[in-house]
Structures are given as structure tokens and as C-alpha cells.
């Protein structure tokens, strides 16, 4: 009978270690393959997410461009409409005042006819005074107010000196002696300086 020769213990340990090493290598290779496959899947998923985000951002940009163009178009339409309204306003700005003055113009026309045939100067005077009073009241109702200038101090913000003459007394120096054209306010805003003669 032949006996099988036993392997030395070190050889068994080496074989076991080699077997374990092979198993470990196989496991490591499997894990690496799984990681690589997982990374490839992650890369595919990441690329899909990025593509979705890009298309979403492109849609938002397109939407914003569309809104921007609409706003520009609306602004242009508003600007044109405002310019047209402004032009019409300038054309008809004095319409209200002119309509109210037509009544006075009619009265002046009637007065002119009466003057041609009238022989009574007092009646003519009275008619002209009535027309003038109507004109003043119409303009006052529209906000026109005459500047009161007596012997006031000369004020370059309100008055325009036409000429200077010697003052009759010392207390009238630098004061208004005569009003050539009265000044006017429209709704408390100065629209015409008073043309005055000032004492020096």
C-alpha cells in the first residue's frame, strides 16, 4: 500500500492564501465592474438631468424674450398714443377759453353796428363798458387775475421797468409811478410782467 504523501503545512497555507487572494481579487473585480457600471449609469442619469435643465432654461429664456418683446411693443404703442394725445391737446388747448370768448365777440359785433348808427355818445360808452365788463368777468372765471400795482416798490420778479423818471418826492424813489401795461396771473402763476415806470 502506498501512502499518499502529505503536503507540507506551508504549502497548504500558501494554497489557502492563494485561493483567498483569488476570491478577494474576484470580489474586487466584481466591485470595480459594479462601480464602473454604476458610474456609467450615474453619468447617463446626470447627462439626462443636465439636458432637462438646459431645455428648461432654454424655454425660460425664450419665454422671457417673448415677454420682453411684448413689453417693448406695448411701450412703443403707449408712447405713440401719448404723443398723439399731446398733439391733439396742444391743438385744442385754448378751445374752452375761446368758446367762452365767442359770446364777448358777438357782443362786440353788435356794439360795432350800433356805433355806426348811434348818435348818443353816452349810450355808446355804456355799451362798450358792458362789453368790456363781460370780457373781464369771462377771463376771471377762467383764472385770469390782474396784478395790483399801486405805488409799490419795484420788484424785478414781478415788474419790468420801461423807463425811470425823477421821483416827485424822496419817498417815491424806487417805487412804481405809472403802469404802462398791467401784469397778469393765471391761477396764481405769473404769465405777464407788469410794464412800469419807476421813480429814481
Description:
- By secondary structure, the chain is of the alpha+beta class.
- The protein has three domains: 14-92; 94-142; 145-200, Head domain of nucleotide exchange factor GrpE (Nucleotide Exchange Factor Grpe, Chain A, domain 2).
- 64% of the residues lie in helices and 14% in strands.
- The chain has three helices and six strands, in the order αααββββββ.
- A hairpin with a 2-residue loop joins strand 4 (184-186) and strand 5 (189-192).
- Helix 2 (95-117) runs antiparallel to helix 3 (121-141).
- It is elongated and about 145 Å long.
- The relative contact order is 0.06.
- The mean pLDDT is 83.
Q: How many extended strands?
A: 6
Strand content: 5-15%
Shape: elongated
Helix fraction by DSSP (H/I, runs of at least 4): 55-70%
Give the count of helical stretches. 3
Distance N to C terminus: 162 Å
Strand line-up in the sheet with most strands: 1-4-5
Q: Kindly give the count of domains.
A: 3
Structural class: alpha+beta
Radius of gyration: 52 Å
State the major sheet: 3 strands, antiparallel
What does the average pLDDT come to? 83
Uncertain stretches of 5 or more adjacent residues = none
Listing every helix as H and every strand as E from the N terminus to the C terminus, the arrangement reads HHHEEEEEE
